[in-house]
Amino acid sequence: xxxxxxxxxxxxxxxxxxxxxxxxxxxxxxxxxxxxxxxxxxxxxxxxxxxxxxxxxxxxxxxxxxxxxxxxxxxxxxxxxxxxxxxxxxxxxxxxxxxxxxxxxx
Length: 106
Ligand SMILES: [Cu+2]
Description:
By secondary structure, the protein is mostly beta strands. The protein has a single domain (2-88), classed as Immunoglobulin-like (Sandwich), CATH 2.60.40.420. Helices cover 0% and strands 42% of the residues. The protein is built from no helices and 9 strands. A 5-stranded mixed beta sheet has the order 3-9-8-5-6, with no helix packed on it. A 4-stranded mixed beta sheet has the order 2-1-4-7, with no helix packed on it. The radius of gyration is 14 Å and the shape is globular.
């Protein structure tokens, strides 16, 4: 996934449980990354330390199923558009994906 001015680019759907992601800051400012639950407005996961410009880091998420937002809240970046909706759901459960149109039905 990629962070830059001012966007977060990543998959819209993740699987529950342990997920390893490669995060690159392809911008010229430092960026933060956290996942907040859409229904609770609470931070579920946060990167240990902001990424420097050009930095690549591998992080491990462990998220339960649900609706999240991935955001950077450093220096007002959130208000400039550094957020993206992310759905965490099992792709084996056959639950229909609604709003995103992303999850594949089999
Ligand atoms: Cu940022």
